[in-house]
Design brief:
Length: 123
């Protein structure tokens, strides 16, 4: 059989860490929270997110918990309120996850040409 195109080099390695980070970022409200924290010079109170997002308080807390568990934000309780800030390494972690995807695609032992697709019968 003849192939219709050159085989693609498929990179195979563990990407669970990056995929988990992208899943955490895959929500417009969580992105709004991150953007707010990245622009803030001080900690931001949870009450600001509850007032500024079209979400109820439990949903805001859920989004903040996911971001905290992913290590992208940090929290500090001050009396009844919790204040948040971007984790010091959040930008570097997000950039590293993007670099995994868009890094130099030189073929090495983690690549394997896919020779099973796009075949057409020889004449």
């Amino acid at each position: 059989m003849q192939r219709c195109c050159a085989p693609a080099a498929v990179r195979r390695r563990d990407r669970e860490g990056e995929a988990g980070l992208f899943r955490t970022l895959a929500d417009p409200h969580r992105l709004a929270i991150l953007e707010t924290l990245a622009a803030a010079e001080e900690h931001v109170c949870v009450c600001d997110f509850t007032a500024g997002l079209p979400l109820n308080q439990p949903t805001v807390s859920h989004h903040l918990r996911l971001l905290r568990e992913a290590g992208l934000i940090e929290s500090e309780r001050r009396g009844t309120w919790v204040y948040y800030r971007l984790a010091p390494d959040a930008r570097a972690r997000m950039q590293a996850a993007l670099d995994v995807v868009f890094d130099d695609l030189a073929v090495d032992e983690t690549h394997e040409a896919n020779t099973e697709c796009c075949t057409v019968p020889s004449r």
